[in-house]
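Re: weekly structure request thread

Next one in the queue (548 aa):
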Amino acid sequence: MKLVKSLLLGSAAGLTVVAGAQAADLPVKKAVPVEFVRVCSAYGAGFFYIPGTETCLRISGRARYEAGYMTDGSRQISGAGDAFQSRGLLRLNLDARTQTGYGTLRAFVRAEIASRTGQSKMSSGTQQRIANAFPAFGQDTFGRVQEFVVADKAFVQFAGLTAGRASSFFDFYAHDFEIIASTLGSDVPSTNLLAYTAKFGEGFSATISMEDPMFRKNPLYSQVAGPPAGAGTAAAFFQGTTAPTPIIISRNAAGVVTGVTQIDAVERSRMPDFVGALRYDAAWGSAQISAAVKDINVGGPLNATFVGGPAAARIATGAFVGAQTTYGWAVQGGVKVNAPFIAPGDALYLQGAYGEGASIYTGYTAFTGTYINQTSVYGGNPFNQWLADAVVNPNTGRIELSNSFTVVGSYLHYWAPEWRSAFFGSYGEMRFPSGTRAALANIGTAAGTLTSGATTYPTTNLITAAPGTAGFGLSPVLRDTYQFVAGASLIWSPVKDLDIGAEAQYIKVGTLNGRVLNADRNTSSGTNLFTVTQQDTFQARFRVQRDF
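Done, posted below.
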């Protein structure tokens, strides 16, 4: 037995040695080292290295709820009565930076998605006109429910170059302290551009930018607002590929209009806008002077005819009826002054702008609406406000520019580290070329029919009363106007990156000369003419916002 036991133990030991020797000859599989995310401190808090690269990335975003109220006419008036508004918004930011021999290479993208309800300013026709949003089509939801999906930012910065979708370099204040953002002033947060910025040291920098023209075009005056459309249909927001504007081509010996043609007043994209800005940044604040130039163009005849008055003895007017281009321009100056001597975080903005054929650059359209010939101030309002960048003079056929200016002041004050308020006010005026209203009245009072092919256009935008009559003087068409916007807010930030606040605004729009018919009063009998010189409204908005 002892011999057997010894043999068994010896065999086991031998097998163990052999197995160990064979195991030693096998390849050893080592564990893959874990690469932990590294903090990148070169560009501030929140950045980390993308594993396996030397690129630093910061992920951030925003969640927001808003509810608003705006006086919006009477429910008894067709199309009016909406007052409550709401919005939920999602924002996602990605900021990627890499250090190179030429400096920092940066790519920044931002997507915004929102669901918005309510007529007027919360469900904005402006956003639909530039394809940033799309509407619902239900009977009760059309024009009141809107989904907003937009690539708000997508740009590359490298060695002074900025290329992509970014905020316009013309802008300065851009509603920095506001919730509703309705003061008059330039604010185009998303446009496609190619720009170069040179830094000179001591806080000075200069930028020249080539920017997409489509985001700064407010339509020329057109005789019709668009093809007829029934309420609650998609066509109510459709503007055709041509917008007719009239030119007088003949009169008779008595001066009565006997022939009118129509030209295409839609502005095509023919060249970019050019923007230049000189900026200074220092511990006390910042200042900027910016300027812009943009093309304004119209096409040729639309084969439309308008014949009125005696046909005999027609006399050609010699008016130009071909395609043409002219140039609008704008200048703006602004200053921001930090005021920590009043309270930490306090600051004051002052800004002013003037332009010709450039109402979006001056920001005169900020409240009432953009990318539209004319618009109502609110549902059931007394008169529409005209916002055209230019008018084709019916007598000469030449483009004539409107002009506008705006001024704005805004002050941010911290009552305590967690409580702050903004106080702001703005004023602006818009004027149209003299003589064009009288020329339009000459067309409107002539007998006849305006047709283009098989389409008969309404002439509701024309002045249908002769110059010198009460009807002419009371027409709102191309009336010079002013706007005043003022308001204040109160915001509570109980913890970092959380804002709970409310803002209220008062808005007033009025005529600069004369009175106009009150559209929400019955004047059909012609015996009692109700007129106004101004209209005003009030709006308020509540917000809860978390940034991360």
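The radius of gyration is 32 Å. Residues 1-5, 11-24, 225-237 have pLDDT under 50 and may be disordered.
Next request, please.
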